Amino acid sequence: MQRPDPTEYAPAFQAYLDRVPAGDVLAHLERQVRVTASLFAKVTEAKGDFAYAPGKWTVKSVLQHVVDGERLFGYRAMCIARGETASLPGFDENLYAANDGTSGRRLTDVLAEFASVRAATMTLFRGFDALAWTRRGTANGKPASVRSLVWILAGHELHHLAVLRERYGIG
Question: What pTM value is reported for the model?
């Protein structure tokens, strides 16, 4: 699958796409789940509750945000692949994080949710035919192609893994 053209997504997502290596993006997502799981397997439960500054998300909340983002981008891809023409809603990431329930969960449970959601995402994406990948729609008032959403999803995770390395000392 070719890297999407900039007309297929909102300019704000360019930084995510820039993080994704060349090649088969679905194969990258398959590898990425193993890399992320390996990274988090080394994080203690106590570190899961760490935030690098007051008002910042905890490690668990960052991972839950990646999960929520995957669900959101996967949902958008499914809707557009199926021919949806209505503009799909945006989401307030800080509102979601404030209500993510991670303070009462173990990091290992959030990581298991991540792996489960990725498996479902891969099943969805592998079921799209060639025509589905070319469909375009609107999400949060901006253009979105099915093809761009898979690349955005991959880059979103890479972005947050970089934040975890740089600001949280993980990895």
Answer: 0.96
